[in-house]
Amino acid sequence: MVFLPVYDYNRLRHIKRPWMNWSLIAINIFIYFVFQSDLILKVGAQVQHTFGFMPNSILPASMRQMNVPALIAEVPGIKVFTYMFLHGDAGHLLGNMLFLYIFGDNVEDAMGRIRYLVFYLGCGIFSGLAHFWSDTSSQAALVGASGAISGVLAAYLILYPRAKLWALLLFRIPLKVPAFVVLLLYIAYNVFAEIATQFRILPDYFNERIAWWAHIGGFIAGIPLTYLLRRPGVELFAKDDTVTDVATGAQAVPINPMDPPSPGDSSTVIVRVDRPREQP
Q1: Alpha carbons 93 and 230: distance in angstroms, whole number
Q2: Which is higher by pLDDT, 138 or 3?
Q3: Which of 103-107, 230-234, 238-242, 275-279 has the least mean pLDDT?
C-alpha cells in the first residue's frame, strides 16, 4: 500500500454509534486471540485448516484432491462464511481491523445496521468465490476479512469520495488527502499485484500468501451492493461536507443592527448558529 489511512473526517448522519461495525471488529479479535493465537486454546492450525476457505473443498466429492473435515463436509459451502472471521497472524488482523474501524462506521451509517451486515457478508462471500474462480484447485486455506473490507472500501469510495483522510505516505509521511486518492490507489495496487503475480514478477512470498483476486472480488461486489442497500435518500458521490453541512443546517437568527452592543465589550460581535434538532 502507498497510503496507510489513520483517521477520517466524516461525521455520522443517521446513527449515534456504529454498533454493528464495532461488533464485527470485536468478533474478529475474539476469534483470533481465543482460537488462533494459541494463547488460550492450542487449536490455531486446526481451526485454520477446518474453517479456512479452500477452493478445492467446495468441488463435488469426485473432483476433490483433498480430504475435507467431516464437519465441513456436512455443511457444504460453510467455509465461504467462516474464512472471513479468521486471520493468519496478529499483523494481518491489526491491518484489517484498522481499515474496518476507519471506513466501516460511515458505511454502516449510510445503510443501517442490518443491511450493513448483509452487505459485509455478501462482499466476503463474493470475495471467496472470486478466489475460487481464480484457482479452483487450490488447497491453501484462504483466511482474512480483507475481501469483505474491500467491499467496505468500495462503498466508502462511491459514497464519500471527497471525505478527508489523514494517511501515512509509504507508512512514514502524514498527509491529509481526499478518500478517493487512497481508495483508488488501493484497488489499483491490488490489480497491479495480481497481474504481476500472473507473470511471476513479484517474489514467491507474495505469490503464495496474498489472494489478490479475493480483494478485487470484494471491491467489485461492494459497488452494486452499495447502490442496492443504501438508505433511501443517501446520495452517491457526496461532496465533502465538513463546512457546508453546518451552513445548510443552520437557522438564521435576525439581529437588529440598532440594538446596543454587549456591555462587556463594545467591539464584540456575536454570531449565533442553531442546528436543527433532528441533526446529530
Answers
A1: 27
A2: 3
A3: 275-279
Residue 206: is its pLDDT beyond 70? no
Asked if residues 154 and 223 have their Cβ atoms less than 8 Å apart, the reply is: yes
The alpha helices in the chain, defined as continuous H runs, are: 19-31, 44-51, 70-74, 79-82, 90-111, 113-134, 146-159, 179-198, 204-209, 212-229, 244-248
Among 134-143, 149-158, 261-270, the minimum mean pLDDT is found in 261-270
For the chain, how long is the longest CA-to-CA vector? 91
Question: Exposed, middle or buried: residue 108 (CB in 10 Å: 0-12, 13-18, 19+)?
Answer: buried
Task: Write out the three cell numbers for 24.
Answer: 464485527
State the amino acid at position 267 in one-letter form: S
Nearest to 148 by CA among 182, 125, 132, 118: 125
What cell was used for 87?
Answer: 486471520
How many angstroms separate the CA atoms of 89 and 85, rounded?
Answer: 12
How far lies 141's CA from each of 56, 109, 211, in Å? 10, 33, 10
* pLDDT exceeds cutoff 50 at 204: yes
Look at residues 168, 166, 184, 186 and name the one whose alpha carbon lies nearest to residue 176.
166
pLDDT of 184 reads: 95
